[in-house]
Amino acid sequence: MGKIQRVGFGASTIGAMAAAAVLAAPSASAFVINVQLASNSPVVGCSDVITANVDITGDLVPVNFTDNGTSIGSASPAVGVNQATIKWTPTTAGKHTITASQPLSSKSIDVTVSAANPFSSGSGGVGCAATGGSFG
């Protein structure tokens, strides 16, 4: 085998290895599988936790959370758990659309937030103890 043939063989091998590495590299794009609210009965002024379950994310792409299109914030999925969580305290009663999104997908849930009960108080705000909606 001549020098030119060996160089060509070496370059082909390196090219094939590089292509295989690109194909095997983790994707920076992630998909939200679902979004959940910890409480069944969210209440104005009471903290709640929103959880987004995501597929395996190579670069731990942050999940962006919104309430009726207004940003709540973002959180990175926990390593090995594939979940991102964020604390949310609704400020208005009524229907809210909670959305969790990443670059290539998003999932939403509709929840109804109740007005605070003025006759009950809890550690999370007025009316929180009566509903069990307080998380800290």
The stretches of 5 or more residues where confidence is low (pLDDT under 50) are 15-28, 130-136
- Determine the fraction of residues in helical runs and give it as a percent range: 10-25%
**Mean of all residue-level pLDDT scores:** 77
Order of helices and strands: HEEEEEEEEEH
Give me the count of strands.
Answer: 9
Cα-based radius of gyration, to the nearest Å: 23 Å
Sum up the structure in keywords.
136 residues; alpha+beta; four-stranded antiparallel beta sheet; three-stranded antiparallel beta sheet; 2 helices; 9 strands; 19% helix; 38% strand; disordered C terminus
Explain the overall architecture.
- The protein has helices spanning 3-24, 128-131, and strands at residues 32-37, 48-54, 63-67, 70-75, 83-88, 94-102, 105-113, 121-122, 125-126.
- The chain has 136 residues and is an alpha+beta fold.
- Strands 4-3-6-7 form a 4-stranded antiparallel sheet, with no helix packed on it.
- The radius of gyration is 23 Å and the shape is elongated.
- It starts with a helix and ends in a 5-residue tail after the last helix.
- The model is unreliable at 15-28 and 130-136 (pLDDT under 50).
Write the layout of secondary structure elements.
Layout: H1 3-24, E1 32-37, E2 48-54, E3 63-67, E4 70-75, E5 83-88, E6 94-102, E7 105-113, E8 121-122, E9 125-126, H2 128-131
Antiparallel strand pairs: 1-2, 2-5, 3-4, 3-6, 6-7, 8-9
Short description:
The chain is an alpha+beta fold and 136 residues long. It has helices spanning 3-24, 128-131, and strands spanning 32-37, 48-54, 63-67, 70-75, 83-88, 94-102, 105-113, 121-122, 125-126.
